[in-house]
Design a protein that fits this description.
One of its GO terms (cellular component) is plasma membrane. Keywords: Cell membrane, Hydrogen ion transport, Ion channel, Ion transport, Membrane, Transmembrane, Transmembrane helix, Transport. This is OTOP3 protein. With about 575 residues, the protein is mostly helical. The protein folds into 2 domains: about 240 residues, no CATH class; about 220 residues, no CATH class. The protein has 19 helices and 2 strands. It has a two-stranded antiparallel sheet with strand order 1-2. Helix 5 crosses helix 8. The two termini are about 45 Å apart.
């Protein structure tokens, strides 16, 4: 069912695809045997595209259901399905994805007219940078896991070493693939490419699900063992003795190397979940771009660049929030890692959030009002990247919002008059409001057309006519450059207060979301430690809620940074 190749070869298609449109009459449209009798070529092409997306989606759905069944069976019946069995299934999926990625790199992408177009909105530098950052952390995580399993080889199976080894190869290959080909709008082998992308998406989703559930078990064991240490007097009974017996069979010795591998593994674990989610989002955009033909007016002539000009208060307030947040985070980590954490550390932690979240909400509301006051047209062009950004923002926010509502119910039903309970209740309400207002601000900003300073169009024309400028004399060229510089300075000095306010607000929210991403990513999890919601819902139920909501919350903060940077740049 692959799409047909293009008849006329082109040796410069990759170099010119990023900027210049191609004659679509030379491209063979997609075909599908179910719609071979359609009279219109365009209609047959659209129906074939929908059919290819449907079949590849069904493939991904079946793979996800199969993997989810394995992971669920491992959780509820550890005797029949073990973690090693799940790792074997995941290794098979990784190998299949590796074969397809290598085939795409060496075969599909090198065919004539394979990549005639490249989506300028897809694969932003911050997204590809995040893939490399979290991919590097995931590789280091697998290295620590291999070292830890090697030291405890007497009680570990060989699968504990083989699975992370395959994981390192998979992460490296996938990161290279996404870095170089995330913008591709592939025009050949449409259905095979769609199936390969969907298989890779399903594999990453299952790796994320496995990481969440496996992290759930590790956090539960660690927290319960800490409870045992607190109640070491012997009067309190251990609630789950089978967990203690299992961990006692294969524990880390007192050697320094083993402790380093163990602590490094625990520290880097959240980065693996983020890596899987980012890869899924990039791969989904590539899947939507398969067979996409970008018209001339979709291709931007210039790309706005990130500059710090014109922002003062946003960076100052944001840097203050980051510095205070780092101090709070360090104090929290020092207190919580002790055997008897102080109640005051939770009061300090939630107080920081209660002060910061209203400021972020007010900034987002003001930014939304400014967007409403502007007389700018909405960008209604088809943009899969922007559509995915909106879906990810709304979907990832559900993780934090869901946890907050569970906390609100538990606290109101318990004792809302207590100081700590009142702080957590206020934190939950403010966090819901902040997520909603920030989503509205970002989504509205992403749909606005890019702002162009007066005189910028002349600068764009000058860039497009560089060949003519080279023929000018040095004196004439100097005069033209001086005029362009004076025009830019004059236009920037008269930049409206609305644009400046949007840039200040966006930059402030970027720094705030960075610190709110750093704190939970590097181990600040008060929802695990305060014990209030856990005592209300029960240990297992609350851990399931948190371990599904917390990774989504971390991903939301990171994705919000990218959206806010886009709003800042376009302002």
């Amino acid at each position: 069912m692959p799409g047909n190749k293009v008849s006329r070869p082109c040796h410069h298609c990759k170099s010119r695809s990023a900027s210049a449109p191609t004659d679509t009459s030379k491209i063979h449209y997609e075909k599908f045997w179910l719609y071979r009798h359609c009279s219109s070529v365009q209609q047959r092409d659209r129906q074939a595209q929908k059919a290819g997306q449907l079949f590849s989606g069904l493939l991904a759905m079946n793979v996800v259901f199969l993997g989810s069944a394995f992971i669920s069976s491992m959780i509820f019946n550890r005797v029949a399905i073990t973690l090693g069995d799940v790792w074997i299934l995941m290794s098979i999926l990784k190998v299949l994805c590796l074969f397809w990625i290598i085939y795409y790199l060496l075969g599909t992408s090198r065919q004539p007219h394979a990549v005639l177009y490249r989506d300028s909105h897809a694969g932003a530098i911050w997204i590809r940078g995040s893939v490399l950052l979290f991919g590097s952390c995931s590789i280091l995580l697998n290295v620590f896991q291999i070292g830890y399993s090697t030291i405890l080889i007497h009680c570990k199976s060989k699968v504990d070493i083989v699975f992370p080894s395959i994981g390192i190869i998979f992460i490296c290959t996938q990161a290279y693939f996404l870095w170089h080909h995330s913008k591709d709008c592939i025009q050949v082998q449409h259905n095979f490419t769609r199936c390969g992308l969907m298989l890779t998406i399903a594999t990453n989703l299952l790796l994320w699900l496995l990481a969440v559930t496996n992290d759930n078990l590790h956090m539960e064991i660690e927290s319960q063992l800490r409870e045992v240490e607190r109640r070491f007097s012997g009067k309190a009974a251990f609630s789950h003795p089978h967990l203690r017996n299992e961990t006692a069979l294969c524990t880390c010795s007192d050697t320094t190397v083993c402790k380093v591998f163990q602590k490094g593994y625990i520290l880097l674990y959240p980065f693996n979940t983020e890596y899987c989610l980012i890869c899924c989002s990039v791969l989904y955009v590539m899947w939507k771009n398969v067979g996409r033909r970008i018209s001339h007016h979709h291709v931007p002539h210039t790309k706005p660049k990130f500059k710090l000009q014109g922002v003062v208060f946003g960076p100052l307030l944001g840097a203050t929030a980051v510095i205070i947040g780092i101090c709070v985070f360090m104090m929290y980590q020092i207190q919580v890692t002790s055997l008897v954490p102080s109640r005051q550390v939770f009061v300090m932690y939630y107080s920081y959030y209660i002060v910061l979240l209203p400021l972020m909400s007010v900034g987002a509301v003001i930014g939304t009002i400014i967007h409403a006051l502007e007389k700018k047209e909405l960008d209604t062009l088809k943009n899969p990247t922007r559509s995915l950004d909106v879906i990810l923002l709304m979907g990832a926010a559900l993780g934090q919002i869901g946890m907050c509502y569970f906390s609100i119910v538990a606290l109101v039903a318990s004792d809302p008059s207590d100081l700590l309970n009142s702080l957590i209740l206020s934190y939950s309400v403010l966090l819901i409001f902040q997520n909603i207002t920030q989503n509205v601000f970002i989504i509205d900003g992403l749909h606005r057309q890019r702002f162009t300073l007066p005189g910028k169009e002349e600068d764009t024309k000058e860039e497009q006519n560089r060949e003519d400028q080279r023929r000018m004399s040095m004196l004439e060229l100097g005069q033209e450059l001086r005029k362009a510089s004076l025009s830019y300075i004059h236009s920037y000095s008269h930049l409206s207060w609305k644009r400046r306010a949007l840039r200040e607000i966006s930059f402030f929210l970027v720094l705030c979301n960075i610190i709110l991403w750093v704190m939970p990513t590097f181990g600040a999890h008060p929802v695990f430690e305060n014990g209030l919601e856990r005592s209300f819902y029960g240990y297992s139920t609350w851990f399931v809620i948190v371990n599904f909501g917390l990774p989504l919350g971390v991903f939301y903060r990171m994705h919000s940074v990218g959206g806010l940077l886009e709003v800042y740049v376009t302002a």
